[in-house]
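Suppose a classmate hands you a notebook page containing two proteins, each written out with its sequence and a corresponding row of C-alpha cells. How would you begin to make sense of it? This section walks through that situation. The first entry is reproduced here exactly as it would appear on such a page.
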Amino acid sequence: MTVTATEFAKLTGTYTIDPAHTRIGFVARHAMVTKVRGAFNEFEGTAVINGDDPAASSARVVIKAASIDTRNAQRDEHLRGNDFLAMDDHPEITFVSTAVRQTGETEFDLTGDLTIKGVTNQVTIPFTYEGTAADPFGNLRVGFEGSVTINRKDYGVTWNAALETGGVLVGEKIVLEFEVSAIKNA
C-alpha cells in the first residue's frame, strides 16, 4: 500500500480505540513445546494523529488486568494472582507513548512507557498503518497492527516451575500483539 502525504494529513485528529474491533493479545511459550495465546478483553485508549508531522502523534492505552482471557478459567485465575499480574495491587496495565517515528511509507515505531505490575519500562512497538474506512454509521476508522516481544521478568513477573525433562513451564519472552481499530472523534 502506498500512502501519500495528503492522505496522511487527512488523518489528523483524536481517535478513540474501538474495543469491539480491537484485539490486545499475547503469546507465551508453554512447557517449552507449544504456545498459549490470550487477550485482554477490557481496555480503553486514545490516539492523537498528526498527519502532517507523525512525530507529534501520541497514544495512551489502559488495560484492565482482570480481563485476561486464555480460554482456560483455572489458568486465567493463576495469571490474575500474585504469581503473575497481582491484579488486586495492580489492576491496570498502561502504555503511554513518548515518541513516534515514521520508518517507512506505512510503518511507524511507537515508543513509550509500558507499566505492568507497577514496573515501568520503555518499549518500541513497530506498527503498520492498515488503512482508513468510513463505517456504515458515518465514523472514520483507522487501523494499525503491531507486535513487540518483552521479557516478563523485566516487569517482576518471575514465577515459574521446572519441568522434569528440563526447561521451565512458562517462557520468559512474551509477544504482545495489537490489532487496533480506532474511530475519529467528532
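The notebook's second entry, a different protein, reads as follows.
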Amino acid sequence: MDRALNSDPVITADTEGRFQRWRNWIGFWLLGLCNNFAYVVMLSAAHDILQKQESQNTTTPTPAPNVTNIEIWSSSNSSSSSRYDCNPVSTAAVLLADILPTLIIKFTAPFYIHKVPYGFRVLVCFLTAVVSFLMVSFSSTILMSITGVIFASISSGLGELSFLSLSVFFSRDVLSGWGSGTGAAGVAGAFLYSAFTQAGLTPQVTLWIMLVVPVILAVSYFFLLVFPPSFPQWRRHEVGHGPFRTANSQERRPLIEEETDTDEDSEPTQEEQEDKHTGPLTFTDQLHIIKGLLKFIFPLSVVYFAEYFINQGLLELLYFPDSSLSHAEQYRWYQTLYQIGVFFSRTSLVCFKIRKIFLMSLLQCVNAVLLVFAVYYQFLHYPWVVFIIVLYEGLLGGAAYVNTFYFIREETAEREREFAMAAASVGDSLGIALSAAASFPVHHYFCSL
C-alpha cells in the first residue's frame, strides 16, 4: 500500500512532463504552420489581385518564390516567337517585396533583437500579419498590394528568427515540431486557398477568413506553450544570452563591492572566469560565433539558391504539350509535389538526422544543372520525370533546413545558442535572394529564344 502511494507522485510527474513536451511540440508545430501559412496564402492572393488590377495590361506579375499554390497562365501573355510557353516579361516588384524585408531583418536583428522581449515580438508578428491580410484584401492599387506583401515578409522573417531562438529554451524535440509545421504550411496553404477560391469565394473573402491564422499563432504562443518558470515574457533584465540566464542575477551581487589591489599579472579568479562565460555577448563574441556558423550558413544558402533557381527560373519552362495535363496543371503539380517533399523531410527529424549538409547542397546543385540542360536541350519527354525530380528537390531542401538548425543547437555552447539560431536563419533567405537575381535573366534568356 505504501509502495503504491509513494509511486503515484512519480507517475504523475512523469505523465505531466510528457504532457508538457507534447504541448510544446504541438505549440511549435502551430507556430511554424501559422508563420509560413499566412505568408504563402497572402502572397497567392496578392498575385490574384495584381492580375485583376492589371487585366488590361500586357504583362502579368510573376509570383514570388513562395507562391506555390497558384499559377495563372494567359495566352495573351505568352511570347508567340518563343519556343517556350512562357511569359517573357516578369515583374520583380512582388519578389523583391517578398525577399528583401526578411533578408534585412535576418541580417541585422540578431545583433539587437535579444533586447526585445519575446512576447512583444510575437505581438509585432501578429499585427503585421493582420495588416498584410487587410491591405491586400482591400487593395485597389499595385502599390498597396506590394505594401501588404512587405508586411507579410516582416511578419514571417521576424517570426522565423524569433521562434528558432525561442526553441533553445525548450527540449530539442520542439525543433522537429517547428520544422514539420513550416513544411505543412505550404501543403495546407495550397489546398485551402485553392479550395476556398474554387468553391466560389473571392480572394478578398478568402483573406478575411484567413485572418484566423495570426490569431492561432498568438494563441499558440501565449496559451499553449509551457514556458520554464524563469522565462521572462515581457522584461529583459537578464545577464547573458541563452536559456541559463536569470532575471535576478544582479540581486546576488553585493550593493557595495570592496576594492582590492590586484596584480596585473595575476591569474583571473574563478568568479571572474565565470562572469566572462556568462555575461552578455559582446560584438566581438557575436562575430566569432558567426564565423563558426559559416559551415552551416553557406551550405544552407547553396541549397536554397539551387532550390529557388529551379522553382522561379525553370519550372515554368518545363512544359510538355503532349501531356493530358495543361501547362497550368503541370506547374501546380510541380509545386504541390515540391511542398509534399518539403513537408515529409522537415518532419523526418523525429526519425533520423543527417549531419552532412554540404552533401545535400551538392545534390541540389546537380538537380539545378540537370534541369537547366533539360530546358535547353528538351530531352525530357514526360512530366512525371520532372515530378520525381521536384519531389526529390523538396526532400533535399526540407532536410537541409531542419538538420542545419538541429546541429547548430547541438554543437553550439549553451551561452551562444540563442544568438546562433537567430544569426543562422539568414541562410535560406540569402539563398532565395541570390537565386532571384540569377533566375530572372536566365528565365528571360530562354523566353527570348
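A careful reader of the second entry would note: DSSP finds 14 helices and no strands in the chain.
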